[in-house]
Structures are given as C-alpha cells and as structure tokens.
Amino acid sequence: MKTKLLLFGAPGAGKGTLAGKILDVVKLAHISTGDLLRENVKKQTPIGLTAKGFMDKGQLVPDEVVIKMIQERLKQPDCKQGFMFDGFPRTVAQAQALDKITKIELILEIQVPFDIIVQRVLGRISCSKCGAVYNTYSNPPKVENVCDKCGSKMEHRADDTEATLKTRFDTYNKNAQPILEYYKGKVAHRIVDGLHTLEMTKDDIKKLMV
Residue 11 sits in a domain of what CATH number? Predict the structure, then answer.
C-alpha cells in the first residue's frame, strides 16, 4: 500500500471527505500547508516568525520558507508510517524541492464537475449559534433558514459567490495542471470520482492505494 500521497482537487471537490476515508484505513500524517503555517506562527517558531513577516505585509510566503517548514514537519514521528499532503505542492518549483526531500508514491486527483461544486459550496449554510452545517440543495434544514438543532438563524458565507468560486476553480486548474504534468510518468496517478467519495468503502480505499 502506498503511503506517501498528494491530494489534488478543486475547492469543494471533497478532499476533506476523501482524506477522512483514507485515515480510517491507514494512519498517515495529514499535512495541510495552510494549517502548518498557522501553527508555526501561533507557536512563534523561527520558521513561523519568518513567515509572519511576509504574511503581515500581504506577501506570499517564499518557497524556501515553505519547504523548510515541510522538511521539519516530515521529521516528526507521526510521518514515519507515511503522510498525505493536502494543498501542496502549489508550484512546479515546490514539487522539485519536495523531490529532494522525499519521493511521492501516489497522486489522488479528485474530479467533480463545476456545476456540482457550485451546489456544494453556494448551497452551504451554517448555524450562527451552534455552527451546524447544512446545504440548501442536498441537506436543507427542516424549516428554511432555521437550525434543526437549536432554532437559531442560518448564515451564508459572504465570500461564497459564484464569481469568486469560478475564480478559485480556474486558479486551481491553472496551477494544478503543470504540477500534474511534472509528475506524469514518475508517480502513480489515480482519478477519484468526487461524486461518490461519500459512498467509498474501506475496500475501495485499499484498492485505490495499491
């Protein structure tokens, strides 16, 4: 079973769902560079302080800082059994740098039609009080805009609009394709149907990771 993975998928494709299914089958370190950056900044590590300097100026954190952070993360004990990157690498340069640290064994690319992503993301509403999440298309509350659990008002994220989602979707496709092309022929690459990740069984996941 392959245990050094990259997860690829557009916003709303279901990377979190697939990651959860994988972690039910094999214990891997689930590494999100966004979470990792926030953790390093919060703990005021040397890398975190360097990254914060760029973030405070509204600048992108340079590749060398991100790579150093990844390198330190992979030294931690929970990575010995394997790891799964979510949202990394974001550029071919980062992929090349990662190759010098470790060898990726498998890419899982989740594909979902844009119209379904629109329903998933734009239909998402949450309770203003208890945080319960619903979807106006697939899992609406029993009473419109009222939480089933506590009766509070539902809210829709202000930045969840079709225009911003289309921009994010296009940006993902533009950035992902050169990276997938870079790994072509070097690393096993499997397409996952993002319409059916919820129904995937443990056996399905095992077959995916062979």
Answer: 3.40.50.300
Which pTM does this prediction carry?
0.84
Catalytic residue among 43, 157, 190, 206: 157
What pLDDT is attached to residue 45? 93
Q: 96 is in which domain, residue-wise?
A: 4-113+189-208
Residue of 15, 21, 73, 120 with catalytic role: 15
Q: In the annotation, is 38 catalytic?
A: no
Distance (Å, whole) CA 63 – CA 92: 11
* Tally of domains within the chain: 1
Q: What is the pLDDT of residues 157-177, one digit of tens each?
A: 777 788 888 998 998 999 999
pLDDT at 142 over 90: yes
Tell me whether residue 124 is one of the annotated catalytic residues. Answer: yes
Q: Has residue 56 been placed in a domain?
A: yes
Give residue 52's pLDDT: 92
Is 183 part of a structural domain of the chain?
no
Whether residue 176 lies inside any domain: the answer is no
190 is a catalytic site residue:
no
- The alpha-carbon radius of gyration of the chain (Å, integer) is 19
Going from the C-alpha of 110 to that of each of 22, 23, 28, 196, the distances in angstroms are 13, 16, 19, 10
Residue 33 confidence class, pLDDT cut points 50, 70, 90: confident
Active-site annotation holds for 27: no
- Please say if 90 is a catalytic residue: yes
